[in-house]
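ok posting inputs for the nicotinamide-adenine-dinucleotide job
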Amino acid sequence: MTIIVTGGAGFIGSNFIFYMMEAHPEYKIICLDKLTYAGNLSTLKSVMFKPNFRFVKLDICDREGVYHLFEEEKPDMVVNFAAESHVDRSIEDPSIFLQTNIIGTSVLMDACRKYGIVRYHQVSTDEVYGDLPLDRPDLLFTEETPIRTSSPYSSSKASADLLAMAYHRTYGLPVSISRCSNNYGPYQFPEKLIPLMIANCLSNKPLPVYGKGLNVRDWLYVEDHCKAIDLVIHKGNVGEVYNIGGHNEMQNIEIVKLICKDLDKPESLITYVTDRKGHDMRYAIDPTKIHNELGWLPETKFADGIEKTIKWYLDNRSWWGEIISGEYQKYYEKMYSNR
Ligand code: NAD
Ligand code: TYD
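and the output
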């Protein structure tokens, strides 16, 4: 089995590659990644020279390059993680989100049609369902929940999902889609909530909480997401959507306070800043389908996962230290100064 993993130099893609190489050592894994600001080759150093691994620097929008790779490698499956993934950046400038997340997805699926494939898997997000009210804890996202996006990011991901379903129906492409809740764990880019708060705590910098910090996210340890995708691509039905989440809803402020406590930093570092435009209030996944059909259950409790994650950021300061010392400084200035 040869699998192309796109976006494998990013957070979830790299964790997926590590997971798959352990779980299926007989597979050949090809990482296709453009190495945007969010992709980091050093993340892949532990697998880079393994005989069943290949890294290809390529943009998923580069049709010629993608077709050439398919001709060369004749992949059996494609798992598409490649995306612009940060909501705040999509609010600043949607255009690259439309390019990568929509056009890039269509290029990959065109290649799958042209060269044949047993599975194209689209890694999607719970954000395509929009948000849920805080005062209705009984409401959860199921696979039947209508698409109702809020941000340019979620709209571009929803567009890709719709295209994937259209390729399945129109061309019979063997497509599956998974929609996961917020992930946390090693190698997450420091622009996202949890690593940003850990990095700022460690430098005794203000912790910028948007609005009142009451927004709720449903956190899942990244390895549990990887295991779920492994199940979906092997045992899930084509033409189907699978929601992935572990019933772990938490308010942002709870998470930030927990990180302060764990790192022994004062809560006085918390600074409430202007809210994100169009900020989704609450995400919450109903994972009944993947549990009943594929037997998936999350294995890492949040208390353990966050401990492991904080320890990883403490032990791997050079990985994120390098990232936040470069171009990221400008991003941080732009997004957070005078906010
Ligand atoms: P990330 O931003 O950490 O990584 C994205 C990777 O894609 C990077 O390595 C980047 O270089 C690469 N990439 C970007 N544009 C590309 C292009 N045009 N061609 C080739 N490679 C390109 O993202 P992540 O958090 O690991 O998310 C991965 C996927 O999972 C995304 O599709 C995202 O929508 C989805 N997702 C993320 C979460 C989450 O909590 N992070 C939750 C649910 C779904
Ligand atoms: P994020 O990690 O960007 O994920 P998403 O927006 O895709 O859920 O943000 C998680 C939550 O944390 C979201 O409600 C926005 C909030 N947040 C802050 O309060 N401060 C920050 O600096 C960041 C990056 C996020």
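notes: The first strand starts at residue 2 and ends at 6. Residues 95-115 form the longest helix (21 residues).
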